[in-house]
């Protein structure tokens, strides 16, 4: 026992962190048992594994117990498997990839042959989640003391960064190829030391006078042998070996086109292309045919004087700088840019002194490049005499003497202070936009003028669970519900093509796999010329509103069906009412007319033969018949006010009152009554109904006049908006005509102000005041027919007031 303890504390020796973990683990609790029982082959394999600086892993025994070294340890990350899987059953330790590696292990153990894979994607659990990890690895058989395969030894390297870098490089190369193909300039790329043509666009083929078949996949100097004697091999080799850019302006080049050797003048450049390791493996060339420009130089020279005059009148300041004499000749506009009087000579020293000290190195570098290329271009700050800062843009060209020595620089200077200020504001504005967008709960996104989405705010990544790289790789349509994608894409293409605003409802997949409805909007941003520069869009979660709308639509359908049933029932009741009106007007009045006719005959022939008691009974019967006729007439009037066709006409109420006053002339004279009326409104009303309304109200005032004083009926009107009357029943923003009819009759208690409009309601006995209790009910029904509102108020012994509110527009 003492010997076992001694051995277990010394094996394995060394091995760094993993050696220590192996020594300290209680292996007696595992299927391998105590270290003293381990076969020598396992010990030897572990010694090799732990001493290796290359990542290694070992599965041993029937249960494939896990071992690994310090070099492998970083691949497990943090919050993952380390150190738990040491001594663990292989299947239990690697459940997420066992379906992939299990068959490989079994293959090696059964065949005894090693397997090797390069840059294979095998995701593992590490850093608290499943991560995509790429590996280059080898599985080799590990044998026990009897030479029987008892395990698998793994030698591996994680190549995730390399694979992702290569993928990124491939995407860039595809993007570069697309840009080259669509570029308006002549562009081509050459690969390797032989400068094999890899990519070439139509503009380049047109310039070269070749077809793609003639140049693609061939060394360019082989496909265009006329270039060899013109020094192009030297130029290409220099760029390929040094990485130095070469550019030329208006260079005469002889090219064999259409069976002839043409001389073309070309502006072009050669730039080195680098691979993922930062090594030069090709060249890209960009060129423009400027033959016509060069041939026009003579014409340009002849108009140089006119051009200088035009430049003086423009925003460009011009100068000529004679290099050897350091003499500067400046235009009036250049003096204005430097804020110096025109009669003062601007010296070269003044020119340099005004440049901001921090920008002098940039200016000097630009001059160095200009001496090589012949073109001068840079932007710099100027310090004005009062210490204000201006920005200038300088463009120039170097002219050489017959010996090829730089002689002078001819150039222009433009004040770009406003442009730079606007640019800085734009950059600040864009930064604010992104900061604001990332704080919003809505999804904010932008797209270029062609509709390609190029920005998403943080809300999009949190909602989808995608990283920017994942969303860029999968594309935004991956988030849209499959059933919505085709229509979504069609609507987006339509907006991008027509420039119309984009508005679309669709479902987005959330990181948990659920879908929620979104309302997406996008509007185009235009430049000064009306061209679309970009699209700015947002997507707002409307899932809850959508569910509410669906439920509301269901309820509307239910209510619509109920309403249809009610309308049908109402039509039936209306028909019944019309039948009742017919019965009332014909069948009920016919026997009543006979009773009154026979009563009149009895009065003429037999009345004197009746006893006093009989006469009294006869008079009561005659009065009852008259009341019956009045009741039927009133019921018919009420019925007609309910079912008559409503045809509104613009009516002068003053004229209507005169007509009613004429009809009631006898009653007014008998009651010694007076109607006093202001200038009233002209309103759209149903004329015969409104005449009946006035007749009923005037008759009501005459019926309930006070004894001992003449009756006065006062009518007035005014127009106001609904909210000015302080009545909740009126629409606040609709105009009403308020008609008031007031009398000085016997009045009534205000507690009956609503009851008096009910059918058959009477506040007095029929012995005292005749009537059926229908007149005011008809008045209210007519006001209802006009979408109006009527109120009544009274004071016993003082009179009654009726207020009618009718809208001007029905």
UniProtKB/TrEMBL annotation:
Domain PAS, residue spans: 429-500
Residue ranges constituting the PAC domain according to the UniProt record: 247-302, 376-428, 502-554
Catalysis: reaction(s): ATP + protein L-histidine = ADP + protein N-phospho-L-histidine
PROSITE patterns linked: HIS_KIN (PS50109), PAC (PS50113), PAS (PS50112)
InterPro entries referenced in this protein's UniProt entry, alphabetically: HATPase_C_sf (IPR036890), HATPase_dom (IPR003594), His_kinase_dom (IPR005467), HisK_dim/P_dom (IPR003661), HisK_dim/P_sf (IPR036097), PAC (IPR001610), PAS (IPR000014), PAS-assoc_C (IPR000700)
Origin: domain of life: Bacteria
EC number from the UniProt entry: 2.7.13.3
Residue span(s) of domain Histidine kinase: 583-810
A Pfam family: HisKA
Keywords: Kinase, Phosphoprotein, Transferase
Protein name (record): histidine kinase
Organism encoding this protein: Algoriphagus halophytocola
Lineage: Bacteria, Pseudomonadati, Bacteroidota, Cytophagia, Cytophagales
């Amino acid at each position: 026992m003492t010997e076992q303890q001694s051995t277990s504390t010394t094996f394995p020796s060394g091995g760094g962190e993993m050696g220590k973990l192996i020594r300290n683990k209680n292996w007696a609790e595992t299927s391998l048992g105590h270290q003293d029982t381990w076969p020598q082959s396992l010990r030897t394999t572990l010694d090799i594994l732990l001493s290796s600086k290359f990542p290694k892993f070992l599965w041993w025994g029937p249960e494939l117990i896990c071992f690994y070294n310090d070099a492998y340890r970083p691949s497990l990350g943090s919050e993952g498997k380390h150190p738990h899987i040491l001594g663990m059953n292989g299947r239990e330790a690697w459940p997420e990839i066992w379906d992939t590696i299990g068959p490989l292990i079994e293959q090696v153990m059964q065949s005894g042959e090693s397997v090797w894979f390069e840059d294979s994607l095998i995701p593992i659990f590490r850093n608290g989640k499943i991560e995509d990890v790429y590996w280059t690895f080898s599985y080799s058989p590990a044998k026990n003391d009897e030479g029987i395969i008892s395990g698998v030894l793994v030698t591996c390297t994680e190549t995730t960064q390399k694979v992702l870098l290569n993928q990124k490089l491939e995407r860039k190369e595809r993007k570069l190829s697309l840009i080259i193909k669509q570029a308006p300039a002549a562009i081509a790329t050459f690969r390797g030391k032989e400068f094999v043509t890899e990519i070439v666009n139509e503009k380049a083929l047109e310039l070269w006078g070749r077809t793609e078949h003639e140049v693609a996949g061939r060394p360019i100097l082989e496909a265009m042998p006329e270039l060899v004697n013109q020094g192009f091999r030297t130029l290409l080799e220099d760029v390929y070996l040094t990485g130095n850019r070469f550019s030329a302006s208006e260079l005469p080049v002889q090219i064999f086109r259409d069976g002839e050797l043409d001389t073309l003048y070309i502006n072009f450049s050669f730039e080195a292309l680098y691979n993922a390791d930062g090594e030069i493996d090709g060249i890209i060339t960009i060129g423009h045919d400027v033959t016509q420009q060069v041939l026009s130089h003579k014409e340009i020279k002849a108009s140089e004087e006119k051009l200088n005059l035009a430049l003086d009148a423009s925003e460009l300041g011009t100068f000529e700088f004679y290099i050897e004499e350091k003499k500067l000749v400046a235009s009036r506009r250049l003096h204005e840019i430097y804020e110096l009087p025109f009669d003062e000579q601007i010296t070269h020293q003044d020119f340099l002194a005004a440049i901001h000290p921090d920008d002098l190195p940039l200016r000097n570098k630009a001059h160095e490049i200009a001496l090589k290329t012949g073109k001068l271009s840079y932007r710099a700050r100027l310090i004005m005499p009062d210490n204000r800062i201006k920005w200038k843009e300088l463009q120039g060209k170097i002219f050489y003497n017959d010996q090829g020595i730089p002689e002078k620089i001819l150039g222009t200077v433009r004040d770009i202070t406003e442009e730079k200020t606007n640019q800085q504001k734009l950059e600040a504005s864009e930064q604010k936009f992104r900061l604001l967008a990332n704080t919003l709960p809505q999804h904010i996104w932008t797209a270029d003028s062609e509709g390609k989405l190029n920005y998403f705010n943080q809300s999009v990544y949190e909602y989808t669970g995608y990283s920017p790289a994942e969303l860029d790789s999968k594309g935004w349509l991956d988030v849209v519900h499959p059933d919505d994608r085709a229509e979504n894409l069609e609507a987006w293409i339509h907006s991008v093509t027509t420039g119309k605003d984009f508005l679309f409802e669709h479902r987005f997949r959330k990181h948990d796999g659920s879908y929620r409805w979104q309302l997406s909007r996008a509007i185009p941003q235009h430049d000064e010329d009306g061209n679309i520069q970009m699209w700015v869009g947002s997507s707002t979660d409307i899932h809850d509103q959508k569910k509410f709308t669906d439920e509301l639509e269901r309820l509307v359908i239910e209510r619509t069906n109920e309403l249809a049933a009610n309308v049908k029932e109402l039509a039936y009741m209306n028909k019944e009412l019309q039948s009742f009106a017919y019965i009332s007007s014909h069948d009920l009045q016919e026997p009543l007319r006979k009773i009154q006719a026979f009563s009149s005959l009895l009065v003429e022939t037999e009345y004197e033969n009746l006893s006093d008691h009989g006469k009294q009974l006869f008079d009561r019967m005659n009065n009852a018949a008259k009341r019956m006729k009045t009741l039927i007439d009133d019921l018919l009037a009420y019925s007609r006010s309910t079912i008559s066709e409503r045809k509104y006409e613009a009516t002068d109420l003053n004229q209507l009152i005169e007509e009613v006053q004429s009809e009631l002339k006898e009653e007014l004279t008998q009651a010694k009554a007076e109607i006093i009326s202001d200038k009233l409104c002209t309103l759209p009303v149903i004329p015969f109904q409104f005449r009946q309304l006035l007749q009923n109200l005037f008759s009501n005032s005459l019926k309930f006049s006070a004894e001992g004083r003449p009756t006065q009926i006062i009518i007035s009107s005014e127009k106001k908006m609904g909210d000015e009357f302080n009545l909740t029943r009126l629409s606040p923003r609709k105009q009403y005509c308020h008609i008031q009819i007031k009398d000085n009759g016997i009045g009534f208690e205000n507690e009956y102000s609503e009851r008096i409009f009910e059918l058959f309601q009477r506040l007095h006995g029929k012995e005292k005041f005749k009537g059926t209790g229908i007149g005011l009910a008809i008045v209210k029904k007519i006001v209802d027919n006009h979408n109006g509102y009527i109120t009544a108020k009274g004071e016993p012994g003082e009179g009654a007031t009726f207020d009618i509110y009718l809208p001007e527009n029905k």
